Amino acid sequence: MVKYCASKYLDNRLFFTVSNATDLPYKSKYFDRVFHFGGINLFGNLSGSINEMERVTKYGGKVVFGDEGIAEHLRNSEYFRIVTTNNSLYTARNPFHLLPENSTNCELTYLLQNCFYLITFTPEAGAPNINMDVLHKSPRGGSMRKRFFGQLEGVSSDHKEKLINYAKKNRVYISDLLENMIDELK
User: What domains are there in the chain, each with its CATH number?
Assistant: First the structure.
């Protein structure tokens, strides 16, 4: 098929290759758009293949791929059982959970009577950007970063409830109370 296309379309802007999906022969951030449809469910390293499509796509570009896979909301239906009895490839689940961390504008669409998935995403430079240091104006106080890295262990639910009630009553933040108490320790 590739040889046929190469002989049929004699255009120096077209380049035909047969290559490994986890090791594409292109420079990083080379393409504006990457498209693959059909067969990806059978790739030995699906995650590596999706990451490789992302690697060769420019930041702000678009990756689109899809294959058989009946929509999740139909998994327990008679429709699912009938269609997958006919063709077991339809039992494949969409690999949306395998998208790279730097994927934005992520979309999952089902086509052709909900028998094929189509995933679209835009690669961006770096992970999603959010200010994790904005202070919460709530009884707990702190920020996302402080709440994640500063978790304390071993406090009973009764003591936790007393601390929350104290913070509410005195209009203070729990994070400030705890940090001040720890700073006073010698």
Answer: 17-123 (3.40.50.150), 144-184 (no CATH)
Question: Which structure tokens are listed for 186?
Answer: 């010698």
Give Cβ neighbours of residue 51 (< 8 Å, ≥ 6 apart). 22, 100
> Is the Cβ–Cβ distance between 44 and 110 less than 8 Å?
no
Report the pLDDT averaged over residues 134-139: 89
Residue 100 in 3-state DSSP? coil
In this predicted model, what pLDDT tens digit does every residue of 60-80 receive, in sequence order? Answer: 999 999 999 999 999 999 999
CA distance 149 to 147: 6
Residues 6+ apart with CB under 8 A from 54: 63, 100, 102, 103, 121, 123
Q: Which residues on adjacent β-strands are paired with residue 65?
A: 36, 119
* pTM of the full structure: 0.78
Q: How far apart are CA 42 and CA 122, in angstroms?
A: 24
> How far is 26 from 127, CA to CA, in rounded Å?
23
Are the C-beta atoms of 67 and 38 separated by less than 8 Å?
A: yes
| Residue 41 in tokens | 């469910």
- Provide the 10 A C-beta neighbour count for residue 26: 15
- Tokens 């940090």 sit at which residue? 179
